[in-house]
Design a protein that fits this description.
The protein has one domain. Helix content is 31%, strand content 33%. The strands form two sheets. A three-stranded mixed sheet has the order 1-4-5, covered by helices on one side. A two-stranded antiparallel ribbon has the order 2-3. α1 links the parallel β4 and β5. The longest helix is centred in the middle third of the chain and has 11 residues. The protein is flat.
């Protein structure tokens, strides 16, 4: 399952934080889009939600 969080506009546009349980997908996404987004291997939880900017 893939989940993305779009916390809102930043100085350079939209900040994207993606979570996925597939290490292979996270590795690919980081190589492909790592300059524009952050990808985390794991499940999105309330703990991560609490760390996001509002």
């Amino acid at each position: 399952m893939r989940a993305g969080v779009l916390p809102g506009p930043s100085a350079g546009g939209v900040r994207y934080l993606g979570f996925d349980i597939s290490t292979r997908y996270v590795d690919y996404a980081t190589r492909r889009w790592g300059h524009r987004a952050r990808f985390v291997n794991g499940t999105f939880t309330e703990a991560q939600l609490a760390t996001l900017p509002r």
